[in-house]
Each structure stands twice: as structure tokens, then as C-alpha cells.
Automatic annotation (TrEMBL):
Belongs to the diaminopimelate epimerase family. It catalyses: (2S,6S)-2,6-diaminopimelate = meso-2,6-diaminopimelate. This is Diaminopimelate epimerase. Substrate binds at residues 6, 58, 68-69, 156, 189, 207-208, 217-218. The record marks 158, 207 as: Could be important to modulate the pK values of the two catalytic cysteine residues. It is an enzyme of class 5 (isomerase). It comes from the Bacteria. GO terms for biological process: lysine biosynthetic process via diaminopimelate. The keyword Amino-acid biosynthesis applies. Pfam families: DAP_epimerase. Its EC number is 5.1.1.7.
Amino acid sequence: MHGAGNDYVYVNCFDEQPPADITATAIAMSDRHKGIGADGLILICPSEQADARMRMFNADGSESEMCGNGIRCVAKYVYDHGICSQENLKIETGNGVLDLQLEVSGSIAHRVRVNMGRPILKSSDIPTSLAGDPPVNVPLHVAGRDLMVTCVSMGNPHCITFIDELSDEWVYGVGPEIENHPAFPNRVNAEFIQVVSPTEINMRVWERGSGETQACGTGACASLVAGVLAGLTERRVLCHLLGGDLELEWSETDEVFMTGEAVEVFHGKWPVG
Ligand SMILES: N[C@@H](CCC[C@H](N)C(=O)O)C(=O)O
């Protein structure tokens, strides 16, 4: 399935046992030449607190707390495949239980709105050693450059750089250096944002554990928050990514909402062991 081109392999753990070695399975499945090809692996599991639980693994096998594009696909999956019948769902993640609303037509969910919760802005909770609570427009020396960056966690950590022009040099040259910079003890996702107007941004991303992806939902939400904090955007923004658009809102109640598509591409079997 994919959300805005951010593609993962999903395993229905309501019916199947999770793979014994999840890290090795995520790496093998994600390989775009010798596997299925994906940005990572997502397990759709039963939950004691919610309608389902999402566990998310990057293409390098590392587990992340949250995945914004993934959670929309999990919601679509449990609805379309009859695991849940209601259009308002609760899904457990590493960042708590989140609320989602499906947009359904012909008994298939096409778009999903997620309450992504409150952004985490305390530097020690993001976590980053960069100064400032919140760390907005703070200096970071990386890849031979002096950047001004803003850090936000949506349950997972993001480092946002506002730039004039998006380019491969930023994504491939600077992205991996930010991901592995010592200022981020858990590594970090790196977003590059071009502000088109106060209500519209262009984004490219270098994801922790997966490299460049066509979209990152948590990254888009973190970038909206960073844009507001930096005085560059309003609280409602349309975010253009390589794989599609996401509608974002940071409400006056301090919750971030994201709306976007969720698409099932195919299903199949994978030999384990
Ligand atoms: N693409 C995802 C985020 C996936 C996890 C991320 N790479 C991390 O390690 O935190 C999204 O849509 O949010």
C-alpha cells in the first residue's frame, strides 16, 4: 500500500503470526531489486486499547514510533478487509492511540484524516542536544554548511531546513549527514522545505532508516509546525511532495491533523525462512 507514494509492505497480523525476525524481514522485503521493494514494513496487529495496532519498520530494519502515511493505510486496510466496520477508528502507535476518520465510497476507504496529536517541542524529548525549547531556527553545522534548522517530534524526530530551492544536493548530500549528526542521539528524519506561500509548501525528505521517500506524513506535519513557529506559514497548509499532496492543519487546541489518500496496490505471499 502507499500514501502519497510512501510505500510499505503490510502484514495482516490479525490472521498471521508476525515474522520471527522482523528486522531481517523488513530489510529483505524492502529491497527494490531482490525483494518486493518498499520504504519498509508495517505490521497490522490486534490491540487491547484500540481497533488495531501499527508497528512500523524502516527499510534498514529499525523500528520507528510513528508513520503518518502508514497509519492512513492501516486504517484503510482494517476497514476494506472487514476487520472493522466503522468509519471512525482508533489505532495504537508508538506515539499513543490516534483517532482517524475514513472517507468512504462504495465500501472502500479512499482518503483518511488523522489526528496526529500534539507536536513535541522540548529538545530533550525530541530528542536533540540543539539549544532552545523549542529549537526553532537554531544553528547546525553539517556537511560543511552552517544551517539554521527547526526540530519537532511527532512521536518520531524531525529536523526541518527551510531552503530557497529543492535539489538532489540537499536530499542526498545533506540529508544523510543530518540523519546521523551527533546532535540527534536517535538519528533523525531530515525535511527540506520550500515555502511557496503562507498556505503552500514543497517538501522533499531524507528519512531515518529508509533514505529518500516520495512522502513522509509525520515529516509534513512537523514541517507545518516548524513553519508556524518560524513565522513562515499559517496553521493550514497544503504540502506538495514527490508522490502527492497532504492537507495539514495545526489546530488552536494544539493538535495536528493530516488528510491524504491511502491506496492498496496488490496482495501476495512471501516465503518466510
Ligand atoms: N514515512 C513515515 C515515517 C517513517 C518512519 C521514519 N523513517 C522514522 O524512522 O521515524 C511517515 O509517513 O510518517
